[in-house]
């Protein structure tokens, strides 16, 4: 088959795409100038999600929705970088799952700054050293990341977006499986592979590491030590993979939060709001706190209790509900909530990903 004519058509389409992309960049620059004058943020996750949903509706295929989102994620990333280069702090070191989540949300163009701990991510954004931060908040198998919830209770930062990332764990070591005596990783990763470890390495000691990537670096330096981390981390630190897909649940997903210093945008019609509550020490206190939502048909997608760290046996409740803080029905529920709860803290409202 003579592919010449087909390739000529592709070349012509590529020229059209480049011309249209540059036209789009020029128009985006005009929008950015108006935003700068008005003091509005360039990065607007709600507007981006609304755009991606609209593109999904008009996309006839064969380009998949995930493929379309990936392409436009990079287009938007390049446009934002052109107008307002961003620095994104994340739980490091490099090649962690949190870095993958950050890049999934912001694309390849920002400057990425790995931080040694979750509090360091918060501090970088609070001090203005980074524009936004990305932290893990919960896993579908291992549950919540308690340190992240504790930090949300103390910070003035706002949740402006969320990212879901499918997690595939690998066992990584320079030693063969039969010589592994110790397995290191983040506590969440160890918990997500508990059954696999019990079957294949029942006598190996499990040791918490500050991050999955740090565990890989240690596994590359120490004999008899293995790490649980991503394939990307194994490639970056050049440590062999002994086994892939060792997580106990095939549908293993981690949810990450994107943090900013200020709220961004209004509701999209498909949003989520996070709140932090404290309760009076009295019978039925939790029931009273939940009633403002249930009576209005507001769906609560999550509730998690954490010690307040102010006094013994005092707890805070982290709650996610459907809806945006600015929605009239949410404001009515919060107004009623404030009458029965000593503390009602809005942590942020953000779009639910399509």
TrEMBL record:
<dbReference type="InterPro" id="IPR018528">
    <property type="entry name" value="Preph_deHydtase_CS"/>
</dbReference>
<dbReference type="GO" id="GO:0005737">
    <property type="term" value="C:cytoplasm"/>
</dbReference>
<dbReference type="InterPro" id="IPR045865">
    <property type="entry name" value="ACT-like_dom_sf"/>
</dbReference>
<dbReference type="InterPro" id="IPR010957">
    <property type="entry name" value="G/b/e-P-prot_chorismate_mutase"/>
</dbReference>
<dbReference type="InterPro" id="IPR008242">
    <property type="entry name" value="Chor_mutase/pphenate_deHydtase"/>
</dbReference>
<keyword id="KW-0413">Isomerase</keyword>
<dbReference type="Pfam" id="PF01842">
    <property type="entry name" value="ACT"/>
</dbReference>
<feature type="domain" description="ACT">
    <location>
        <begin position="274"/>
        <end position="351"/>
    </location>
</feature>
<keyword id="KW-0057">Aromatic amino acid biosynthesis</keyword>
<dbReference type="InterPro" id="IPR001086">
    <property type="entry name" value="Preph_deHydtase"/>
</dbReference>
<dbReference type="GO" id="GO:0004106">
    <property type="term" value="F:chorismate mutase activity"/>
</dbReference>
<dbReference type="GO" id="GO:0004664">
    <property type="term" value="F:prephenate dehydratase activity"/>
</dbReference>
<protein>
    <recommendedName>
        <fullName>Bifunctional chorismate mutase/prephenate dehydratase</fullName>
        <ecNumber>4.2.1.51</ecNumber>
        <ecNumber>5.4.99.5</ecNumber>
    </recommendedName>
</protein>
<comment type="function">
    <text>Catalyzes the Claisen rearrangement of chorismate to prephenate and the decarboxylation/dehydration of prephenate to phenylpyruvate.</text>
</comment>
<dbReference type="InterPro" id="IPR002701">
    <property type="entry name" value="CM_II_prokaryot"/>
</dbReference>
<dbReference type="InterPro" id="IPR036263">
    <property type="entry name" value="Chorismate_II_sf"/>
</dbReference>
<feature type="site" description="Essential for prephenate dehydratase activity">
    <location>
        <position position="254"/>
    </location>
</feature>
<feature type="domain" description="Prephenate dehydratase">
    <location>
        <begin position="87"/>
        <end position="261"/>
    </location>
</feature>
<keyword id="KW-0456">Lyase</keyword>
<comment type="pathway">
    <text>Metabolic intermediate biosynthesis; prephenate biosynthesis; prephenate from chorismate: step 1/1.</text>
</comment>
<keyword id="KW-0511">Multifunctional enzyme</keyword>
<dbReference type="Pfam" id="PF00800">
    <property type="entry name" value="PDT"/>
</dbReference>
<dbReference type="GO" id="GO:0009094">
    <property type="term" value="P:L-phenylalanine biosynthetic process"/>
</dbReference>
<comment type="pathway">
    <text>Amino-acid biosynthesis; L-phenylalanine biosynthesis; phenylpyruvate from prephenate: step 1/1.</text>
</comment>
<keyword id="KW-0963">Cytoplasm</keyword>
<dbReference type="InterPro" id="IPR002912">
    <property type="entry name" value="ACT_dom"/>
</dbReference>
<keyword id="KW-0028">Amino-acid biosynthesis</keyword>
<keyword id="KW-0584">Phenylalanine biosynthesis</keyword>
<dbReference type="InterPro" id="IPR036979">
    <property type="entry name" value="CM_dom_sf"/>
</dbReference>
<dbReference type="Pfam" id="PF01817">
    <property type="entry name" value="CM_2"/>
</dbReference>
<feature type="domain" description="Chorismate mutase">
    <location>
        <begin position="1"/>
        <end position="87"/>
    </location>
</feature>
<dbReference type="GO" id="GO:0046417">
    <property type="term" value="P:chorismate metabolic process"/>
</dbReference>
